[in-house]
Target: DUF7792 domain-containing protein
Amino acid sequence: MVMAAEEEKSIQDVLSLPILLADRALKSAQEAESFKPENSELARQVTELSQLLRSAARLTTTSPAVYDRPIRRVSLDVTKALDRALTLARKCRHKKTNVLHHVLSITTAADFKKVSALLDSSLADTKWVLSIFNQDTDNWSINLSLPPIATTDPILAWVWPYIAAVHMGRAEAANELAILAQGNDRNKKIIVEENGIPPLLKMLKESGNLDAQNAAASALCNLADDPGRVRMIMDASGVQVVARALPEAPMRVQVTLVNLVARMVEMDADVKEEFGKENVTRPLVALLGMDVDLEEFKEANSRRTVNSLHLIVQINKEMVKKGVHGLGSGKSFEGSRHHSHRKDKEREMESPEVKLRLKVSCATALWKLAKGSLSNSRKITETKALLVLAKIIEKEPVELKMNCLMVVMELAAVAESNNDLKRAAFNPSSTAAKVVLDQLLRVINEDTSPPLVTPAIKAIGCLASMFPAKEKRVVQSLVAQLSNRNLDVAAEAAKALGKFVCDDNYNRKEHSQAIIEFNGVPKLMNLLRSNNRGPLHLHEIVLFCNLAINAGNSKALEQARVLSVLEGAARHVVTQHPDLRELFAKAIHQLTIYQAGIHTHGEV
Ligand SMILES: *[C@@H]1O[C@H](CO)[C@@H](O)[C@H](O)[C@H]1NC(C)=O
Ligand SMILES: *[C@@H]1O[C@H](CO)[C@@H](O)[C@H](O)[C@H]1NC(C)=O
Ligand SMILES: *[C@@H]1O[C@H](CO)[C@@H](O)[C@H](O)[C@H]1NC(C)=O
Model:
């Protein structure tokens, strides 16, 4: 490995040492008084090596951006070999007399053999390294012969020429790196250690060639499966390069770039925020909504129709500030002005499969960007993302629909702990929120697949505090899910309902009444009795507690003997969740007021 201190030296400085050593070794060998034939062979090797080193030095001065990593690495070994050659040649300065031990003479002869072998290796390595930089510009291929330096690490013999060729803008080489970086962790490690990331980013940024961009994006995508490597991509300005390349790239490249964004974001929280700062959410939402027609929402917006995405963002911001909820343009979402006519044409011509893949990837990336990030969730909801998501959830294929539900779920989860975002994005009186809620409820009522129903239920739960007392259809839909045959879905429904009746919810009494009215108690009791989910049905028990507190005099609770259920569960639950002690005490107290004398009351 080249040490950090070596890295700081300029490549000319690195090469000047072996060149100097070569000159001295040559002089000593020419002046030698003993072992003359060996010294003249040594002089021949050193001369050749010196010429090659000077070629390398010239190469690095003519093209300042040359990929010098292999030269640095090889020069370390070359320097060592020349150092030994010099020492050996110096030993031969004086004519040897008979006094010289025979043994000494034998070791010197052996030394000449060793040094000669070292110089041969250095010659082969240096020739090979130079051949990397003399690649045929029309007819690209790499030197398949293995240099001595790569015998311990054969992968270097591929990685170096490929990286050098990526520096020279060769798409084929980026493609080869992408293949090398598929799956094999050791290859990825070497590509990164040998500085493969910066030229790939440069290619992505500067190449106008679709194949080159795509190959560079694929290689980066394959490398971005480890937090350390994702950091290195970020440190090499990868977030900026990727975010800026995304809007203008051809659609096939966009698919890869969006996958890269999703991968990087998932690996590192700082990367997530960096991508947000680069406003990557905008092209992602725009691409997700490229075929979504938002014409029908035009009425909802009293403002003038505005085409540009940028203005929509501004307008939404103003509306949020003024507490008005409305949306941007009524036109199709693909409004960004800088998309040229040519790009629109290309877009129309892309196959539906590519378009679908792109949208699925965009939804995944938005989902990862929103997850746990207030600033990203803000940026996403400030665009017309909610409308786009709702339209897609309404009728697109399952995978895309599922990913969009995940986006909504993550946005709702962030909004749950931030009132500003909740009010700005999910106020039920705004069109966007209404449309999304309708779709969430439709999924809950009509879909059967748990991966679709679960995020919809979770999202509704996160927004529980937003629903007015008279909004009963939401509670009704959730109550129905308490008897879902999938017990995990049923438990999610119980958890979500818990947020409608908890102490923080202003309308908890009305919601509790509604749950009881829609027959929630017997359903919940059945769910509690199902043993499949382990002994502790925490969400169900907590929901019962809150129903008892808010509607203690309900006949349904009495009939279901909820008091004895709570008393039976209390000790066990409170041992594991001491924070629930007060809730249990309050619930049991409330029930005993109405059902006094029926039970002996256990201590909580
Ligand atoms: C490949 O490298 C070897 C040294 O290992 C060199 O002798 C040969 O000329 C190179 N081949 C090409 C095509 O550059
Ligand atoms: C490319 O290389 C092949 C074989 O090495 C050769 O036959 C062909 O003529 C070369 N083409 C160009 C354009 O140099
Ligand atoms: C992202 O968008 C905001 C708001 O429009 C803008 O102020 C900021 O400069 C943008 N950031 C970048 C990196 O373009």
